[in-house]
Structures are given as structure tokens and as C-alpha cells.
């Protein structure tokens, strides 16, 4: 499966205990997302396009309106990396 650098970065944050906070408009569609690390820092290059790709590939999931977290498939797809702040 092809996973871009931004998607890998987000998956690393989620694998280390992060979460994706989402906001919905008037309907069921997600209108804004924020990827938050375990320490409370915000991942700057995370946007709706990266969120959509991760969701379409079923690498993240949400249960009963809770924040999105990494799925089992996502944990298996994330590449091992010593430091996810790479170049």
C-alpha cells in the first residue's frame, strides 16, 4: 500500500498515542480536523486531504463519535522509524 510522507507522519503520531479531533458542520460531513500528539502538540501539516486518505484506506477509525485513532490495519501499515521528525 502506498502511504505518503504526511500520512506516515500522522500514523506515527497516532501509533504513539495521539488522536485526531474532528468537527462536523450541520450534516454528517467532517469539516475540520486537528491531529494532536500524546503530549498535546499539534501536527502542522495535517489537513482534510490527509485525513480523507487515511480514512479511505481504513488506517484510522472512530467509535461512537470519539476522536479518531489508529486502527489495527494502520498499526500494521506504519513503517518503523526511529525519529518521525525526519527530512
Automatic annotation (TrEMBL):
InterPro entries: YjhX_toxin. It comes from the Bacteria. Pfam families: YjhX_toxin (PF09857). HAMAP family: UPF0386. Belongs to the UPF0386 family. NCBIfam families: PRK13687.1 (NF010240). This is UPF0386 protein D1012_01115.
